[in-house]
Amino acid sequence: MSGQMEGLVAIVTGGASGIGAAIAAKLHDEGAQIGVLDRDTTGADERFAAFTADVSDRASVDAAVAGVAERFGRIDIVINNAGIGAQGDVSANDDDEWARVLSINVTGIARVTSAALPWLRKSPSAAVCNTASIASTTGLPQRALYSASKGAVSSLTRAMAADHLREGIRVNAVNPGTADTPWVGRLLDSAADPAAERAALQARQPHGRLVSPDEVAAAVLYLVSPASGSTTGTFIEVDGGMAALR
Ligand code: NAD
């Protein structure tokens, strides 16, 4: 712990669980104050201010971001991490489900970042990090809608980086591989033999195990910290080598 985030305030969406919780803890350990924005704040660390909001609902996002600013007096960092999955090929989900997933995984980033922009513009250390996925860059079977949403997160990351370059707001993303989070736990628990399914899932990973949320958080910390001050519009793969094997 170096205290490199001392004095900064970070919003972490989806910060009550999994990768988001690990990011919130990592930034807090480095000195940042944290506003968790989650539709279900149950389990949000008691060290963090928690705001119940659904990133697919602009009014609740605006209220939560205003709440973070009111509580801490500034916003320097936005971690757009909230996201949901979708299974199946291109025909598997109806129009309502396409709209719902894209509204959370993609438009949610626009809503939260838009609400925070006036504060980011005032910060000398402004940075945004989006949680994309290995699905952004790899053709994963039976993940058509999810992959479309995460590919859009990658494009949006580059566009945001270009738009806000001159304002000193850096925008980057992480591409996690399969990570050991409650989300993946729920998928495994729905299998007939969860232990066997977990072993098979681990065996499919290039480095023989799931990615740890803390490993993703370490990459995010770098991308929003002063150490990466000349880095914007880029991605860090935290995937055990999956992208290298493409
Ligand atoms: P998780 O389900 O453990 O946590 C997600 C959190 O987001 C939860 O606290 C949930 O309440 C919150 N959330 C979901 N929808 C929301 C909404 N509409 N508004 C506000 N909050 C909402 O999931 P996770 O595995 O930690 O995934 C976090 C992110 O990482 C997601 O964007 C996911 O796509 C991405 N990701 C996960 C993996 C993986 O293998 N777990 C791999 C690559 C990318």
TrEMBL record:
It comes from the Bacteria. InterPro entries: KR_dom, NAD(P)-bd_dom_sf, Sc_DH/Rdtase_CS, SDR_DHRS6-like, SDR_fam. GO terms for molecular function: oxidoreductase activity. Keywords: Oxidoreductase. Gene3D superfamilies: NAD(P)-binding Rossmann-like Domain. Transmembrane segments: none annotated. SMART domains: PKS_KR. CDD domains: SDR_c (cd05233). Residues 8-177 form the Ketoreductase domain. Belongs to the short-chain dehydrogenases/reductases (SDR) family. This is 2-keto-3-deoxy-L-fuconate dehydrogenase. The lineage of its organism: Bacteria, Bacillati, Actinomycetota, Actinomycetes, Micrococcales.
